[in-house]
Amino acid sequence: MVKVLPLLAAIGASGAALALYARVEWPWSLLGWVLFVPWLAGLDRIESLRGTIAAAAMMAVAFVVAVFAWLPVMIADYTTASLATATAVFLLTAPLLEPQLLVYAVIRHLARRLAAPWWAAAAIGAGFYVGAEWALPKAMGDTIGHGQLPAAWIRQSADLFGVHGISFALLLVNEAILELTRRLLVRRQPGTRPLIPALAAAALLCSMSAYGALRAGSEPVGQDAPIGVAAIQANVSHYDRLREEIGTFEAVGRILEAHFALSAQAVGANDVDVLLWPETVYPTTFGTPKSADGAGFDRAIAAFVQRQGVPLVFGAYDAEGAAEYNAAVFLEPGRGDGVQFDVYRKTRLFPFTEYLPWPLDTPRLRRHLPWAGTWQPGAGARVMTLALRDGRTVRVAPLICYDAIDPAIAAAAVRDGAEVLLTLSNDSWFDYPGARELILTVSAFRSIETRRPQVRATPTGLSAIIDAAGGMVAVADANRPAILFGSVRPASSRTVFVELGSTFAPAAGIAAALALLVLSASRRRAMRHGGR
Fold this sequence. Notes:
The protein is α/β, with parallel strands linked by helices and 532 residues long. It has 19 helices and 12 strands.
């Protein structure tokens, strides 16, 4: 029989540790190595599968409350539902938001019943954990490895196995510390040997730190001369509301004027090679105007680029027939009065806002979800070549908002020759404590995995310049106009992660499943031999 109060206390302790860990700050990042220890100790006292599932569901609730406390408010704001309704949905769907916790708990339970050694159960459980995160992608793309961003050495191993490799290591150390604690509590009994799990945890931490120290201190191979990039944060947001207040023409004009002014200031004060504006900053199609006013705005943007003599990358829409796309427009000064432009179409759309997943996309459901968009996804990663004023060219990979959640898109672009990551996002919908920080953290790992510098532009923050090792070179204050200028060095080297892609998580899951099958078969053979 499960003692409820000790279990709730254990879940509460892990939840409290997660709340601090989710701040992604030093020294709270150290909690990642122990944050699940109380919960795992509680799980190991449960004998039944049903009890294990219940404990995992409770941990999922604690997890989302600790990490995503802002989500119910955002749901209520976006959908106009009551906060009570949004909170109820949030809590009830917690196991769906963090499904890997249920998978992890159940697999550990099965491994214990199969009498697996602690280290085998730990490895199998960790493999299923990251495998489940890969197979059951989560809305924010989060994993506990993201909390190691402040650890400059630890985070570098993401260029080997991705951020899921760090999550895997965190789980192994949590299990080792739990085993160490258990052996210390029964140290007077023969054969406990507490030194073994301690050495295992130390060896893993030391090897990751040593690798990270080497990688953090090395410069990626690439162009010798850096390029100057300016990200413009005009602090103009919620374009739909602005349009309702002052009309479409005035709204678009105000948005463009704010960005023109800051961009001209940036070019005048710095050696700017590329200007970057946020996602959907131009809230209509570029190149295929829908009206005479739209054509006039297109000409105004083109004339501005021609006057400044600097390439501009900005968010807009793109249309092809009846299909419309969230897009990044690459606009370059041309000869005479002309300009040259190309378009990247956003690959990863946010479900239930930018589109409805099939087969939910029906007229009946859309009547209940009037905010759901009808945008189409692009064809995948693209590499765009920009011609700079000094005659050089730079190959860049555009990532639009949710694209940065998917490590495969950045890796594919780098395999195709991208030297710099340019991220256009609109995080104004996530104006809640911890939300924009989470998005920035997830984006930063794309730079670590690919060893590419990254420039992020958002309307209200957090715009940032991130170096190839994941360091925050500059971050603009939220909800303030800002010009974020920095020199970034284009890189051409490839990492293990770029070559292999996101294979670690599925491979770990498959290996763990095979190991569990082997354990099960061994257990059955032992039982048969024991019965003779």
